[in-house]
Amino acid sequence: MIKKILIANRGEIALRIIRACKELKIPTVAVYSTADKTSLHVRFADEVVCVGPHSGKESYLNIPSIIAAAQITNADAIHPGYGFLAENDSFVEICNACGITFIGPSAESIKKMGNKSVAKETMRNAGVPVVPGSDGVVDTEKDAKKIANEIGYPILLKAVAGGGGKGMRLVNDDTELEKAFSMTKYEAESAFNNPDLYIEKLVAGSRHIEIQLLGDKHGNIIHLNERECSIQRRHQKLIEEAPSTIVTNDLRSSMGNAAVLGAMAVNYFGPGTIEFLVDNNRNFYFMEMNTRIQVEHPVTEESLDIDLIKEQIKIASGEKLSIQPSEPKMHAIECRINAEDPYNDFRPNPGTIESLHFPGGHGVRVDSHIYTGYTIPPYYDSLVAKLITFAPTREGAIAKMQLALDEFVIEGIKTTIPFHQKMMQNPDFIAGNIDTKYLERIDWKTL
Questions:
Q1: N or C: which end of the chain has fewer CB within 10 A?
Q2: For the structural domain made of 5-103, what CATH number should be given?
Q3: pLDDT in tens, 323-363
Q4: What is the second-level CATH architecture of the domain 207-446?
Q5: What topology does CATH give the domain 132-201?
Q6: How far is CA 315 from CA 7, 81, 291, in A?
């Protein structure tokens, strides 16, 4: 059994991991940057180590400092959370070389799924449907045009090392491609230190449906149903829910089985997510695999009454799966509360929280690291809270979310709460008439 866990992350996910560790009676070590000295994950961990200045590159991405922090505190395991080092295969190999358990999948699995072109080929070979596109990296603009005209516009130019909605560009014709190809390569090189691109056909009117997977180190892999993530802005998820309004029992079974096949192809263990695009005819296509815990994991937890973080830690310790597949027990919805001004093109709005009140009541959960007087630093992701509601029906979960949003008070900064209030009363959302481009077609402020 793991004896002490260092959490190589910050914010709400660091707090979430600390809570799971306390339930399992495992001591924790929090690392922090100088900008996060007053963060709650620093207050509630058993031990703390400063690993660098405010820059993520010099702190939460500083592998030598994080390994040193684990060694001086005698932590025998590291939980990466999501983001930062969570999908860094080199970091996993370093942990292994230092005798530290990485709480996540193997370096090989991360490497195969981290390269989107390799991942697509791996899924195709495993019998998982993939979006039509290039068979691998597209080296030249000439090759890109040839492929685009074969599969038909519109297409997406995508960085092979991309993720989180970054390194992606929509192209509608040859003229746009001429401008976009070199620009996207440059952006990919700058963001991911890898300029390689591949092409996918745009699946018009698609829904973003992802399958939660869980595997152990003994070869057992299960799926834990789907999450709907179609309400997005610039490929960034804003609202997630489970189950999806368009997924039938048959489709859930087909997608789940395909996801399990894909995970088995890379000998996967731990929690992971395979993301699909689903078209109007309920055909589904592999998009990517996230080899980590997801931001939206509470949606699955509340729909099934399970704890994915505790299970992840047990799996890393070598235990067999203790969770069994089951149909959704509840309907769960998550709204991401970001420190952004939704009335000003969602511009980041860091600052000091002057007053705070979290909503409560039956069927309401808040995952957050903020408190009255806390100053949100401008250096990291703008997520400040995740508001989750759950009920036996979707209508009940939406009603609870409407009440919870009205009760959620954050003063001193602007947040995305007004956007979510509008969406929870939006007839299209209530009816489930959405897709990944929905927010591009409407002005949410006039709803």
A1: N
A2: 3.40.50.20
A3: 999 999 999 999 999 999 999 999 999 999 999 999 999 99
A4: 2-Layer Sandwich (3.30)
A5: Dna Ligase; domain 1 (3.30.1490)
A6: 17, 15, 14
Q: Tell me how far apart the alpha carbons of residues 317 and 77 are, in angstroms, rounded to a whole number.
A: 9
Active-site entry in 16, 169, 292, 336: 292
Residue 211, beta-bridge partner list: 226, 274
Judge contact between 337 and 417, C-beta under 8 A. yes
Phi, psi of 235 (to 5 degrees): 65, 15
pLDDT digits (tens, 9 = 90+) for 31-45: 999 999 999 999 999
